[in-house]
Specification:
Helices cover 45% and strands 0% of the residues. The protein has 137 residues and is an all-alpha fold. The protein folds into two domains: 1-54, no CATH class; 60-131, no CATH class. It starts with a helix and ends in a 6-residue tail after the last helix.
Amino acid sequence: MNKVWAAVLGLGLIGVAAAATAQNMDPGAVNPSTPDQMNPATKPIDEGFQNPIPPEKERPTVSDWGGLRPDYGREETYYFCSPCHSDARIRTARKSRDEWSATIDRILEKYPYEPMEPQEREIILDYLAKQYGPNVP
């Protein structure tokens, strides 16, 4: 039985080498014209589909603070929230100060972060309620 598998494997390898030779390629080389072997950042995309990997110039930097609105408390909010999720989760939520407080409580209970200083918590809550409250456009 082992001889049969060895023969099948050998024939498969010969076929791969023959196909690569026919294309004037190194048998171990990646064929960049084959879509499944292309770099996902440069892979052609269907019309109407957005490539999830943005070009280098569009990638956020720390100075963007993840797209959070500029105001006092943005930096603290960014450093507390961004290790686990994107800014989109914050920017699309519209919660009252009490709801933001409950969210922070739930996060701190579920994930063992280092203890949060009460002053830092107030800064973050003030920022979230002001910039991402229920009545903020």
